[in-house]
Specification:
The complex is a heterodimer of chains A (287) and B (633). Chain A has 287 residues and is mostly helical. Chain A has one domain. Chain A has ten helices and two strands; from the N terminus they run αααααββααααα. A two-stranded antiparallel sheet of chain A has the order 1-2. The longest helix of chain A has 33 residues. The N terminus of chain A is likely disordered. Chain B is α/β, with parallel strands linked by helices. Chain B folds into three domains: 252 residues, Rossmann fold (3-Layer(aba) Sandwich), CATH 3.40.50; 99 residues, no CATH class; 181 residues, P-loop containing nucleotide triphosphate hydrolases (Rossmann fold, 3-Layer(aba) Sandwich). Helices cover 38% and strands 20% of the residues of chain B. Chain B is built from 25 helices and 20 strands. In chain B, helix 4 packs across helix 5.
């Protein structure tokens, strides 16, 4: 029943304090870097490029001084999905490959069954590259959130979006919503855990499989989802009151305890990141 | 910008000498209007002034209107008729709202739902940020508020890692950083354990000493005792208004309103009835010790010839109420105590629940790894009422989650009815039918619209037929004192706090467990709800023989109902025994940061003054007799 300990796998919104270069960068720099790297990652098309990316993503964990095992552990819950994705990509990807690359494997079910497996060199590569990309994205997101306070992130986001206010992009509101959502992740996770345990204690049974397991699962969710919603709405209502009582009237005219400041480190890091991203995106690695 | 030029940065209380009214409530009525229903009148003609620097408590049971009144003070609610003026500004004036919120700050009940930011210091900064102050001024205010509330060391912590008391202190700091003239606490301690409440009491004392007026709506009489002025509310009106001494002298009136008297006030009531001339009202232990000493000196001067003159019959002069009186644990002479042996150990046969050398660590293998149990022991016998006490984080919650297999033992033994819970082939569902576990605030787990359906959830899940489900629901509801016919079709959302909690407990009882384990069953209830619920638990044991284990922080309550107490600290058992034995170890208990029942504390205070007071006193009657004996020896 340790599977009920939900908090264990929640790494999103957790912050691991530290003094690494990554921790010390201005959140705005980190956000810009993040966007650049996502772009770079999505433009890689070769095995070698993928391997290089994964290597540098792992290097990033080291630079940020984060415990490697803990960061990678967060991948565990998505491994089955990655595997499923990989299998499908490999088996079916080639069916739609029009590039004329060499076919490595082909199998067709006897008609009328519409099942065909084709593996081509290109489709195999794109499957591998996709997995590499997902792992990279996961690691980069983890490093960003584990090495940046949520306040830093949301404040950075708010400032980066501020120039877009004339275009009706509600930067402050988005940032505030995000901040509150992140702030309540642990609270709601704890609450969810408590509700599940409470219902289990009065006869609910969430781990017995059986016929119509799917239907039963859906019905089983009611005793969990209803109390969770009720409590979340109540929390939201009380939070609104509390914010109002503290004079919150929206973003205009607010001050800041710790305005973000760029340092020399940021001006050093930014060109390096830009160069790296451009390099990854435009230097074609063979194979 | 020079801070003093900016009206928003006005130094605190600049224009408010102590005693000038800051908030004036003038003949206010307030009605909650629900669509399609008759308005519910919450306040019915209330007038009141809150003056600079004063300390006010508002008491009253749930639904008396105290929370509504609190929320009118800073314009979160607007009067239906009448007027509320804050620093001369009408709360209905939308343009003045910011100024009003800056003058009257408010802290709410649930510590989790008022913290906005990711860390303590950022949260405290939220208010000043809203005022648009510049960074150095925000920093100054945040640092000052953190220092005043002793939070400086926690500045960088995320809120979810704090205890309830710490979170509420953060909430108070967040309000103080706005530098208001009045701090309103809207049942801010209702969800806290006694340590948290003590933290807040201490914090409020400091805030008040700094010159901020404090208005506290509360259920807890030990908070009311500290106020300069106490308002008692009932049915939307202020029915008593005076100093704590004046108000608590009205014992009969308060009882009529089903409000608590502080333990020492109850003791004074009993003693002064037997010994006319003795102080009719005592507010705290120190005062009680003084008065008892003084009286004893008077006695010895009178040369004690009349000792024993008063009747010592069972007829105690004051009507008894539950905690600390009516439901005292069995005296050694009672049949129950004889059957179990003084010590409540049960002796005969093996216990229903047995925990030996239990270890448990949360989040093994992550940076957040935390040991919760380090070799804990526990036992519960058939038909026994036991209490588990300990500081927050002592491992109580982790322990009780082992009792019905929600957590499997990592190391050590947990046996229920002789079955080892470490055995992977064990049917846990069967264990859960034998050991009912009721979490804190169980009303939050209700999900069916009607009472009957919600209680029927368990019996249906375990496959009872219609007849059986109906029988169980009927019995469970009757047991918790909610008549089956009257309640089965009622909506759960329309019930009072005490009622919804009973429904939730009935939901567990419908599984007909042999053991009922409850985590803080009375937390957040008003005195009336609390007394009714404790009586229900004792009934349950009497009628069905169900063994009951409660986790509680309320030592008065533990002394009143438990036969055996298990004291935990840092994941280990440190003491166990009858309440008498355990509370006799005053030094150990205090070292653990736990409280003693006030009557026990009084005995220790008297001993330190040289009296031969017994240390094994845990109930009001015993304290009364002990003091009487002192006077006559």
């Amino acid at each position: 029943m340790d599977s009920l300990a939900l908090l264990k796998d929640v790494t999103l919104g957790q912050y691991l304090p530290g003094t690494s270069v990554v921790h010390r960068l201005d959140p705005r720099t980190k956000l810009v870097a993040f966007v650049l790297l996502v772009w770079a990652v999505s433009s890689v098309r070769t095995y070698l490029g993928s391997i290089a990316l994964i290597a540098s993503a792992l290097g990033l964990i080291v630079v940020a001084g984060l415990p490697m095992g803990y960061v990678l552990r967060g991948l565990r819950p998505i491994i089955p999905w990655l595997a499923l994705f990989l299998v499908f990509q490999i088996l079916f990807g080639g069916n739609y490959d029009l590039s004329g690359s060499p076919v490595l494997f082909h199998w067709e079910a006897p008609s009328p069954l519409p099942i065909r497996f084709t593996v081509t060199e290109t489709s195999l590569r794109s499957a591998g590259v996709s997995i590499g990309r997902l792992i990279c994205l996961y690691v980069m997101t983890s490093v960003l959130t584990l090495a940046t306070t949520t306040t830093g992130l949301t404040h950075g986001l708010e400032l980066l979006l501020a120039p877009l206010r004339p275009l009706k992009v509600p930067g402050h509101e988005l940032a505030m919503t995000l901040a509150i959502a992140l702030r309540f992740v642990p609270t709601l996770a704890e609450e969810l855990e408590r509700i599940i345990k409470a219902q289990v204690s009065r006869g609910a049974d969430f781990d017995r499989p059986g016929r119509l397991a799917f239907l039963r699962r859906t019905r089983q969710l009611v005793p969990i989802v209803v109390p969770l919603f009720v409590s979340t709405f109540r929390r939201a209502e009380e939070l609104v009151l509390a914010m109002e009582a503290r004079g919150y009237v929206g973003g205009a005219g607010r001050g800041r305890l710790a305005p973000l400041q760029t340092t020399r480190l940021d001006w050093l890091a930014l060109p390096v990141i830009i160069a790296y991203a451009l390099g990854v995106a435009f230097i074609p690695l063979p194979f | 910008m020079d801070a003093t030029d900016d009206p928003r940065a006005r130094p605190r209380h600049e224009s408010r000498p102590v005693g000038t009214p800051i908030v004036v409530v003038d003949d206010v009525r307030f009605a909650y209007q629900r669509r399609g229903e008759a308005p519910v009148i919450a306040l019915d003609g209330v007038s009141l002034a809150v003056r600079a620097g004063e300390r006010l408590a508002i008491i009253g049971h749930n639904g008396s209107g105290k929370s509504t009144l609190a929320r009118l003070l800073n314009g979160l609610l607007l009067p239906t008729s009448g007027q509320v003026l804050v620093a001369g500004l009408d709360t209905r004036d939308a343009a003045a709202r910011r100024r009003i919120r800056q003058t009257v700050g408010m802290v709410f009940q649930n510590p989790d739902n008022q913290l906005v930011a990711a860390t303590v210091e950022e949260d405290v900064a939220f208010g000043p940020e809203n005022l648009g102050l510049d960074a150095p001024e925000i920093r100054r205010r945040v640092d000052a508020a953190l220092a005043l509330l002793d939070l400086t060391d926690l500045a960088a912590r995320p809120p979810h890692q704090l205890s309830g008391g710490q979170k509420q202190r953060v909430a108070i700091a967040g309000i103080l950083a706005i530098e208001p003239g009045v701090l309103v606490l809207d049942e801010a301690t209702a969800l806290l354990d006694p340590f948290g409440r003590a933290e807040i009491r201490d914090a409020v004392r400091r805030v008040h000493a700094e010159g901020t007026a404090v208005v506290a709506a509360t259920h807890h009489m030990e908070e009311a005792v500290e106020a300069e002025r106490v308002l008692v509310m009932s049915e939307g009106r202020i029915v008593l208004d005076g100093s704590p001494r004046e108000v608590f002298a009205e014992a009969d009136r308060l009882r009529e309103l089903r409000l608590d008297l502080p333990p020492m006030a109850r003791l004074a009531e009993r003693l002064s009835a037997r010994r006319p001339g003795f102080a009719p009202v005592l507010l705290n232990v120190a005062e009680a010790a003084d008065e008892v000493t003084k009286e004893s000196e008077v006695r010895s001067q009178e040369s004690g010839g009349i000792a024993g003159g008063a009747s010592l019959g069972g007829a105690s002069p004051a009507p008894t109420d539950l905690v600390g009186a009516g439901l005292a644990p069995p005296s050694p002479a009672s049949p129950l105590a004889r059957a179990q042996g003084e010590g409540g150990r049960g002796g005969e046969g093996s216990p229903i629940i047995e925990v030996r050398d239990l270890w448990y660590t949360y989040q093994v293998g992550t940076p957040f790894e935390a040991g919760a149990l380090r070799g804990a022991n526990f036992e519960l016998h058939a038909g026994e009422v036991a209490a588990v006490v300990g500081h927050s984080g002592s491992g109580k919650s982790t322990l009780i989650q082992h009792l019905n297999g929600l957590i499997r033992p990592q190391r050590g033994l947990v046996r229920v009815n002789g079955l080892d819970l470490a055995d992977r082939s064990l049917d846990l569902a069967a264990i859960r039918r034998q050991v009912g576990l009721v979490f804190q605030f169980p009303e939050q787990q209700l999900f069916e619209p009607t009472v009957g359906d919600d209680v029927a959830f368990g019996p249906r899940r375990i496959g009872c037929d219609r007849q059986e489900v109906r029988r169980r629901v009927r019995e469970a509801l009757d047991t918790v004192g909610l008549g089956f016919e009257a309640y089965k079709d009622r909506y759960t959302f329309g019930l009072s706090g005490g009622e919804t909690r009973r429904v939730a407990i009935a939901g567990v009882l419908a599984l007909e467990p042999r053991v009922l384990v409850l985590d803080e069953p009375t937390a957040g209830l008003d005195p009336r709800g609390r007394d009714d619920l404790l009586a229900t638990l004792l009934d349950l044991r009497a009628q069905r023989g169900t063994a009951v284990a409660i986790v509680s922080h309320d030592m008065e309550q533990v002394a009143a109902i438990a036969e055996r107490v298990w004291v935990m600290s840092h994941g280990e058992l440190v003491l166990s025994g009858t309440p008498r034995e355990v509370f006799g170890q005053a030094d150990t208990i205090k070292q653990l940061g736990l409280g003693l029942p006030q009557v026990t504390e009084l005995m220790h205070a008297l001993r330190s003054r040289g009296f031969a007071a017994p240390t094994d006193v845990v109930t009001l009657e015993e304290a009364e007799e002990a003091v009487w004996t002192l006077w006559h020896s």
